[in-house]
Amino acid sequence: MSFALRKEEERYTFADYMSWDDGDRWEIIEGVPYLMSPGPAWFHQEISMELSRQIANFLKGKPCRVFHAPYDVRLFPKKDDTDDTVVQPDIVVVCDRSKYMKTGYAGAPEMVIEILSPSTYRHDRLLKLQLYRKAGVREYWMVDPETKTVAVHTLKDGEYIINAYGDDDIVPVQVLDGLSINLTEVFADSSE
Q1: Is position 163 within any domain?
Q2: pLDDT tens-digit readout, 130-150
Q3: Among 62, 128, 157, 180, which has the highest number of CB atoms less than 10 A from its own CB?
Q4: Looking at the DSSP assignment, which residues form a beta bridge with residue 91?
Q5: Is 161 part of any domain?
């Protein structure tokens, strides 16, 4: 994901975002648009698919759902579409069907997973970390394919508590009681 401002001096809303039909994928964070790169590396996709598979298998027959990018998440929705933050996390788990939109989700997901890459590292670790905390995302995972590690941020009293895991760990998902993710399977074929 490389970041380029649409117009540096302007701020944009969800309504603006919905009018863009240039074929590119964008995120807007506090009114600032970020252009997303055309497509992630194969190992990014493989990690995303395995995480999604494990979560989806667990959620079968349950009310929560897992979605993967591209999937719009309006973290601070407004009825008049003037909200200024729309993100496309790699993976989201959502449980409140009343927040489903035609094009995504309006509100904070229960869980967000971002798979880091050299071009998104700072963006996901700094900007999005604070954004997800502020929005009330209860569990935020940062998956690093290069080091084969996962940093799990669990929201408690408005702040994230961080736990780190390696490629041979089994990680409990706090927001989905009974689900644990096997990182050996997640990172099995993710070497470059």
Answers
A1: yes
A2: 999 999 999 999 999 999 999
A3: 128
A4: 68, 113
A5: yes
